[in-house]
Amino acid sequence: MADREYNVVLLGAPGAGKGTQAKMLSSSLGVPHISTGDILREAVANGTELGAEAKGYMDRGELVPDELVIAIARERLGQPDCKPGFVLDGFPRTVAQAEALGGTLEDLGREPLTVVNLAVDEDEIVRRLSGRRLCRGCDGIYHVDQPGVESGAPCPAEDCDGELYQRSDDQAEAIRERLNVYKQQTQPLIDYYGERGLLVDVTGEGDPEQIAERVLQVVRG
Length: 221
Ligand code: AMP
Known about the structure:
Layout: E1 6-11, H1 18-29, E2 33-35, H2 36-45, H3 49-60, H4 66-77, E3 85-89, H5 95-107, E4 114-119, H6 122-130, E5 132-135, E6 141-143, E7 164-165, H7 172-186, H8 188-195, E8 199-203, H9 208-220
Parallel strand pairs: 1-3, 1-4, 2-3, 4-8
Antiparallel strand pairs: 5-6, 5-7
Helix pairs in contact: 1-9, 2-3, 4-5
The protein binds adenosine monophosphate (AMP).
Residues 14, 36-37, 40, 57-58, 61-64, 69, 90-93, 97, 169, 178 line the site of adenosine monophosphate.
């Protein structure tokens, strides 16, 4: 059991490495990794009502309406495994979501957030997203620059026999839309959390293990 709560939000553009860093941080801290994107993709794959409502927005690279994602996050954060803390990845993405998150934590009597902003140059973001391939089996994240990585290929992880695929929203047009949405709706959160003294910037460029070290240091304080 952790000695204190680790209530972490990872902010950053699509492709900044939130998913990769959130996975590493959640395993270092022993708290759940909560990705609203993963929850929504699972709902789409399972053909649920939520999935049917979210799919069109996601395919176009637009944000799913606040009410839907706020309800998802509120429900997930109230579960007992989130008591020692959580790493939020991809939520909040709008000021309305940030306000709702603040309210939820207050209602649950939780400690304040540490918000880590992963800063990455825009050309690098586009390179990462357009070459990104995921594994259907282990959710591993790869890049076509790595040997053997392409859609339809087997997962390079030793203990996984899943297949690699490209996310439908990692295609050029959706990437452009997601970056526009990020600039208009999510970047304002950097000021929102900065003004509240909760924000720490960490460079998201370089070796993922070294970035993870920096993020861990910041979060542990
Ligand atoms: P992600 O995996 O975080 O890049 O999210 C993929 C897509 O899911 C986004 O482009 C949105 O369509 C949707 N989504 C995920 N999280 C949110 C959120 N917090 N608010 C609105 N839409 C979201």
